[in-house]
What does this fold into?
Amino acid sequence: MKALTLTIDKYIQLRQKQETDINFRPNIYDLVELKEVPDVNLINENWVKIKVKIGGICGADLNLLSLKTSTCLSNFSSFPAIPGHEIVGLITEVGSNVKNISIGDKVIIDENLGCEARGLVPCDSCSKGEYNLCSNYDKGDLSPGAIIGYCKDTGGSWGEFVVAHKSQVLKIPESVSFEQALVAEPLACAIHGIFKHLPRDDENCVVIGCGTIGLATILALKSFSNCNIIATAKYAFQSELAEKLGADEVFLVKKDLHIKKIGRKLGCRILSPVMEDALPIGGGADIVIDSVGNASSLANSMRLVKAKGTVILIGYPSYLEIDWTPFMAKETHIVASNIFSNLTINNEKKRTLQVALDLIESGQANVKNFISHKFSINDYKKAFEVASNKSQNNSIKTVFIYD
Ligand SMILES: [Zn+2]
Ligand SMILES: [Zn+2]
It folds into this structure.
């Protein structure tokens, strides 16, 4: 099968070159290679094979391609890997111990490879249903990998086929298209994030960033809270969509002007420190959700949150040099959100990905405008450039599509 492949050796080689040669400017597509690779096979009788119809490119993928991903979790990955953890497709093969899943079913895959997928007795986290925090990602029936896309045995959606454990498979309802279903993955990440500290109806929530995760966060907030939603967006096309999806107000990021405007809106007095951006104090957002996870989004988050307020990190920061002073000065609660697992709503425990899919099916979460660009994997270089140059291309979610 044809796939984009990734090796740790190439990653180390490019990172070392970047560190030693200041003139080295790697292309966004240098890390991966398009290749004919051996087909993926069922791990055992509890697994299924999926022909990928759409594979998404997410912010974390772009960080990886830009060589910004930490190697801190390298023990929880194995290579050569085929990236791509946003996966929708059709079942083409079913293991002998799989019931209720048939060849031809339209499915979305929960990418997490916890104890159940690995055929292990559940670890502490998995026994609570929190398989996104599993401690056994390097044990059991398959090679190391926290998620599909970083495990050499499963393939990933940047290739034509993927295998998944039966527990990872969710059926896509008849009325939901593959394109809509694909957005359930980032929407589930957003839902998992907001439930870390769900804003009450009378609270103010600031969403930093209006890329896919930021927009999905707005949809998630609209579905579970009546809080006031203020968003920051880098580009006008993002701002328009954020308003359409239900943000009460959206401010374009411009130096620290948006910080001053939002700060005033939230009842703050604005300090103008020497050599530093404006610092609103005395008011601020009850909850700030950082959908980006870079130095500037964190700087914005810590300025806009109120004293003793909460910042939820959904965007995945790795190596960042930032000034933590405002967090300290406000005794901010910082909560990290990692992918998703299960969620209990009204005493009912459900997979978060299923919750996202249900919101899409009911029409409550309108994800129609999320996928902005589609490419064949043959055109992966162009795809990565479009996905990473959002302003030039007005790109939101860029995906690979397959016949
Ligand atoms: Zn992702
Ligand atoms: Zn586990």
Observations:
- The chain has a mean pLDDT of 97.
- The chain has two domains: 2-183+367-401, 186-336.
